[in-house]
What does this fold into?
Amino acid sequence: MPTEAELRAFLREARPTVEPGTGIDTPAVIRRSRRRRLPRQLAAGGTLSLALVGLGVAGVMGLRATPLMNEAATSSDSSAESGAAGGMAGGTIEAAPAHKLNLCGGTLAEVAPNESGLILTTSFPAVVPATGQSVSGTVVLTNTGEIPVAGTTAAAPAITVSKDGIVLWHSNGPMVAIAVEVDLAPGESIQYPAVFTPVLCGIEDDSAESFRDDLPALGPGTYDVSAAIDLVPLDDASAPMPTITGPSAPVTIR
It folds into this structure.
């Protein structure tokens, strides 16, 4: 997830730069990953700075920010599944939230299309250097359905980098949580800032509070980048949060 500074930078249309570097043997890592589908625990924690933000429609971001809380809050989650980690509640299977949908080394989760017609599409540079440096872009949430949709989401979607259906990296670590108001008529869209890092994470990273600082850069090749976000319905905050996804987009690393 983007930090507070990155979110502010997005609003100023700032973009980080990357420099050339070296990578790793990604195909070999993927082959090893497919042979080790072991259960793992996810412990994700972070400091949350809350604010309320409204996003304009048709891809235009307009702020109506009101601080809700200035105190720091710490939370931790756990998951024993790789990939689409679900839980049991009252005898029924619950879908994993967006930030736990895909775990390092697991199989890329398959999520059913949103019943209201909401879909996420990513927009990142088509080609990036193999430096392991973070890459900024945007994600657009579009209402392709026939009825208006209203609710709230996080300030930025969870991003996943994968290859051949294997998760290589996903959004992680401390994040700034911002409640974003979503009110989309059919055909309307809103835009979120998004960041991904072309590095390879491992099982131990999902088991720790945050990812290691020295993760190896992904080597040259074409990878898939996808996004997911949870929506809290405006008319029933207690209803299950549908996780919204969309098609993966290719990004080439050179």
